[in-house]
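re: ur question from earlier - yeah i can do the single chain one, its not a big deal. heres the input i used so u can compare w yours
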Amino acid sequence: MSQDTATLDRELNEMIASGNAMEAFEKFYADDVVMKENNQDARRGKESCRKYEEEFFGNVAEFHEGSLQGSAVDGDRSYSEWIFDVTLKDGSRMRNHQVAARTWRRGKVASEQFFYEPNITEAG
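and the output i got, formated as tokens:
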């Protein structure tokens, strides 16, 4: 399974890096996916997670960087390290260095947790 997971994870990361995060979400995430930001409460189910992702991307005015720094796969678990730099519609700028930890089940992301410390510069 790890080779299949590695292939799937690589394709998912390539789609995210090329600006197709929502298309990747639709293709790779399970209907019962659980997603979590740091230690916040988990979002459960694809519909709830989709709404959160759409709201986030809807608040982005400009992407400056979205680059994959590295990734690893161990069985049905994958880890991706990212740097994201965006300007939000309110004029603030957010630069995140984050790790996404995913658990895969039957070719879909069953759970994903993001670990990061956001660096937000207030609108000037």
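Residues 2-17 form the longest helix (16 residues). not sure if urs matches, ping me
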